[in-house]
Write a structure and sequence with these properties.
- InterPro entries: CHASE2 (IPR007890), Cyclic-di-GMP_PDE-like (IPR050706), EAL_dom (IPR001633), EAL_sf (IPR035919), GGDEF_dom (IPR000160), Nucleotide_cyclase (IPR029787), Rev_trsase/Diguanyl_cyclase (IPR043128).
- Keywords: Membrane, Transmembrane, Transmembrane helix.
- With 927 residues, this protein is α/β, with parallel strands linked by helices.
- It is 44% helix and 22% strand.
- It has 5 domains: 132 residues; 219 residues, no CATH class; 118 residues, 2-Layer Sandwich (Beta-Lactamase), CATH 3.30.450; 157 residues, Alpha-Beta Plaits (2-Layer Sandwich), CATH 3.30.70.270; 248 residues, EAL domain (TIM Barrel, Alpha-Beta Barrel).
Length: 927
């Protein structure tokens, strides 16, 4: 009977253990043990430290870089400069963990886009999803995708930089790739790590890789060249932010808080080292623990303490084995459920031995002691200063951080009045005077404290009220209740200072100290809504330095910045009040003038321009300065803040196109002209691609017998929407935009090709822009055109304008010699209209001089025009050059020019510019 009862007891106990195991298995599947699993993972990471590969380098937007650049957001050109520097250092890849989904300004965006293109396909830019900002949008239903703007995306790889945050608020995992609009996009970690995984799936980052030994260099140190190629050559560069002001910080296991760029680097290192971890074996390890534990639990004749030690040994063995597996393979063995089942087995066994009540008492004692230890540690280690003050205003407890926050010494047992400022004492008194604890409303407040060195410390604090029972008093609980207040404080001086500085940078230009465009537009908006005096005229003026690009090119940006600062100092001396001058960007200053009449306004603007002109002595250089001023009058109450700046900018563009050094008022026609110019610029960029350009030819005849000697090739543009556009309108746009080089190459090939179809050879004259002539590949372009079409170089006349030869810095001799050796001839076009210098004529081997139409129009009058033409003919004869008279429209002009000795004529008298088939018909008729 005893044996049967014992067996029955063993069977019951065994069934209880099996039931516990089944419950634990169910909880494992449902994910209840996730917090324990994370704790175990974090512990293992601390024991499996690994070195980084050294192939991934972080370029850090740290506090030092923010301080030295001095403005936020940074100009996109700064990123372009860094990218060029990294390319020069021969890095392998460059990944930006920075949001480029919005535009900044055209100049900086273009500079960064050009740098990406120069990098040659090694750049990747960030894209990510975020919650929509529309009202009513929820995180679960509405998201938007932040992508790089089109200017950048064409030459760069997109990479996903989303950082998944786990249920505990920390980052444990990283994405392999994510799908956007049906297309998979690799994560930044996969790109830098060298291979990807399944789209939409995640892997666990190996936080055992030493984050503090990742190579990190400050952004400004790399930009300034302090970091050499020996540290970056062949490396994969990750550019991200660690500065606290930029708030790209995340909670992570083991390290507490890390910048997002460091997390991305650890994820990439995990892939590169084949350490992209996955959780495995939860149920299998649980089953193994049960199989090992059940025999131990059934040894009822063995002392329970020994069995407890055996259970502990099983748990330690499983964890040691899991640690070895995790260290050697990219797997995280899931031992959480196994440990839980062992703990429950131990608990059940303990309850069976010592009884439930005794165990509960011990548990309560342990919890109380652990809570006290934990709360004491939290109290002492808190970043904030914490004081506990009783109802007698005596300090009962103080954390270590309190001595760093408060200027006066803090000690337990002294009166709070000895160490707290008055405003804090007042709040403590208010809390203690409340009838009930819950009557006190806690609120965050600030206290400013003067320090002995004259500086001010800003402290943020909050006072909360509570009560406790003093068990040492022999009274009832209600009578033994003691009122306490807790005062939590922190030093926010640096935080406030940084916020003030960022607010200043948001509305001021750091170089000149003037308000920036945002601040100036706020001033205009205030003026619009204010009751301004009706007898006053308000004017917005924009001022730009003439030739600022040449100053930057010759003396550098630092001198240009000093010049802006000096000009700002002069400008404010002629303005009657503060906030009327601003630095708008693009090296432009702006001002707001309010005067009684337009006459006074003109005097004020002239005075302002005269004050800003003149010489500036900067860093040992004397810089002569002239300025252009564009201004507009404000119609009271009928403008928005942006319109006056736009109108003044239009006027400024007009005066600068006219040569600068003048003051121009905005007119509505300027806006229309600029709008048309912008349309023409846009359409002209696509004209060649759309086949809208064509060549026409104007005859060149011998003035002796009107025999057709040659033609001049001219470019014409017929747009589908705008119709025929005059060359006088679109050629200047092509030259300013640089398209003239491409157009010049095209017309050269096209004119030669069409000329080759004529029945007999004619001399072909082609205008060459100075920009085209000075291009490095100009001679090669000529040679290619001749080779491609078969046209003879001995029939080719390249017409060059006088402006090409006035800049002594241009090295033209090599190009001209190459053209002469090729067999081409040079003609001096529009002679007399440019710079009126004859010094360059004997220097260069011209075969023809073309006299401009402005002299031909009045050649028959009794005046100096005929004498000038005669002088040119004589000069040409000395140097054995032919003289071409262009713009001949009457027979009287023809006779006069023939009498003066001109050789060749061109003009409507002999024929308007016509297509190639028209020239072919002329040749056929002449034959």
């Amino acid at each position: 009977m005893a044996t049967t009862a014992a067996r029955s007891g063993i069977n019951s106990t065994l069934l209880a253990y099996i039931a516990i195991a089944l419950v634990i298995a169910f909880l494992q599947v449902s994910g209840v043990f996730a917090p324990l699993k994370r704790a175990i993972d974090e512990f293992r990471f601390s024991l499996t430290e690994r070195e980084p590969t050294g192939q991934i380098v972080i370029v850090d937007l740290d506090a030092k870089s923010l301080r030295e650049v001095g403005v936020w957001p940074w100009p996109r050109k700064v990123y372009g400069d860094l990218l060029d520097a990294l390319v020069d250092l021969e890095v392998a890849e460059v990944a930006f963990d920075i949001d480029f989904s919005s535009r900044s300004n055209q100049h900086d965006d273009a500079a960064f886009a050009a740098a990406i293109e120069r990098a040659g396909g090694i750049v990747s830019l960030a894209m990510f999803r975020q919650n929509a900002s529309a009202p009513g949008a929820s995180a679960s239903s509405e998201t938007v995708v932040n992508r790089p703007i089109d200017d950048f995306a064409g030459e760069a790889w997109p990479t996903v930089v989303s950082v998944p945050i786990d249920a505990d608020g920390r980052v444990w995992q990283a994405l392999w790739a994510e799908e956007f609009d049906g297309e998979p996009v690799l994560s930044l970690a996969s790109l830098l790590g060298g291979h990807g995984g399944v789209v939409g799936e995640m892997f666990h980052i190996d936080f055992g890789i030493a984050a503090d030994r990742l190579e990190r260099f400050s952004f400004v140190d790399v930009l300034s060249g302090e970091v050499g190629a020996d540290k970056l050559k062949g490396k994969k560069i990750l550019i991200g932010a660690s500065a606290q002001e930029l708030r790209d910080l995340f909670s992570v296991p083991l390290y507490g808080v890390l910048p997002g760029a460091v997390i991305q680097a650890l994820a990439a290192e995990s892939i590169a080292q084949d350490r992209a971890l996955t959780h495995r074996g939860g149920l299998e390890i649980l089953l193994l623990a049960i199989i090992l534990a059940l025999p131990v639990l059934t040894l009822v004749r063995v002392d329970w303490r020994l069995r407890a030690l055996l259970l502990l040994a099983i748990g330690l063995s499983l964890e040691a084995l899991a640690l070895v597996i995790q260290f050697r393979a990219p797997v995280i063995p899931d031992t959480a459920a196994a440990h839980v089942v062992l703990v429950f087995f131990f608990a059940f066994m303990t309850l069976s031995q010592i009884g439930l009540q005794k165990l509960l008492l011990r548990i309560s004692q342990f919890e109380t002691r652990n809570s006290r230890l934990m709360l004491g540690r939290v109290f002492d280690d808190s970043f904030d200063g914490i004081l506990v003050v009783d109802q007698n205003r005596i300090i009962r407890a103080a954390s270590r951080a309190t001595t760093q926050v408060l200027p006066n010494p803090v000690k337990v047992g002294i009166s709070a009045k000895e160490c707290l400022p008055d405003v804090m004492i007042q709040e403590v008194d208010r809390a203690l005077s409340c009838a009930e604890v819950n009557d006190h409303e806690a609120r965050i407040q600030e206290a400013s404290i003067k320090l002995p060195d004259g500086k001010t410390r800003t402290i943020e604090f909050i006072v909360t009220c509570s009560a406790q029972v003093d068990l040492n008093q022999e009274t009832s609980f209600s009578e033994a209740e003691v009122r306490l207040v807790s005062l939590t404080c922190r030093d926010v001086t640096d935080e406030r200072r940084a916020a003030d500085h960022l607010a200043y940078l948001a509305s001021h230009d750091p170089i000149t100290g003037l308000i920036n465009r945002n601040g100036f537009e706020e001033r205009l908006e205030a003026l619009r809504t204010a009751d301004a005096c009706e007898d006053q005229i308000h004017c917005v003026a924009l001022i730009a330095v003439d030739g600022i690009d040449q100053i930057v090119a010759s003396l550098g940006f630092s001198v240009a910045d000093l010049l802006r600062k000096a000009m700002a100092g002069r400008l404010i001396t002629v303005l009657p009040g503060p906030g009327l001058a601003a630095s708008i960007g693009d090296n432009r200053l702006a001002c707001l003038c309010s005067v009684a009449s337009e006459d006074v306004l003109q005097e004020r603007l002239k005075l302002m321009a005269d004050v800003l002109k003149g010489e500036y002595l900067l860093l040992g250089s004397r810089i002569p300065v002239t300025v252009s001023v564009g201004y507009t009058l404000l119609i009271e109450g009928a403008f928005n803040a942006e319109a006056p700046l736009r109108e003044a900018g239009n006027a400024l563009s007009v005066t600068r196109q006219a040569g600068g050094n003048s003051i121009v008022r905005y007119q509505e026609a300027m806006r229309l002209n600029l709008q048309r110019r912008r349309v023409l610029e846009t359409e002209l960029a696509r004209a060649l691609e759309k086949g809208e350009l064509h060549v026409v030819f104007q005859p060149l005849v011998d003035l002796k017998d009107r025999r057709l000697l040659g033609v001049e090739a001219l470019m014409r543009w017929q747009n589908d929407a705008l119709g025929d556009i005059s060359p006088a309108e679109f050629i200047s746009i092509a030259e300013e935009s640089g398209l003239i080089v491409e157009f010049g190459t095209w017309i050269m090939k096209q004119a030669m090709k069409e000329a080759m179809a004529w029945s007999e050879p004619l001399r072909l004259a082609i205008n060459v822009s100075p920009l085209q002539f000075t291009a490095p590949d100009f001679v090669d372009a000529i040679q290619d055109a001749l080779s491609e079409t078969g046209f003879s170089p001995h029939f080719l006349d390249l017409e060059l304008t006088e402006s090409l030869f006035v800049d002594d810095r241009l090295q033209l001799d090599t190009t001209i010699d190459a053209l002469k050796q090729m067999g081409c001839s040079l003609a001096l076009d529009d002679f007399g209209t440019g710079y009126s210098s004859l010094g360059y004529i004997p220097r260069f081997p011209f075969s023809k001089i073309k006299i401009d139409k402005s002299f031909i129009d009045q050649v028959c009058d009794e005046g100096p025009q005929a004498a000038i033409v005669s002088s040119v003919v004589s000069l040409a004869g000395i140097f054995k050059m032919k003289v071409v008279a262009e713009g001949i429209e009457t027979e009287e002009q023809e006779e006069k020019l023939r009498a003066l000795g001109c050789d060749i004529g061109q003009g409507y008298l002999f024929g308007k510019p016509i297509r190639a088939d028209g020239i072919a018909q002329l040749l056929k008729t002449a034959a």
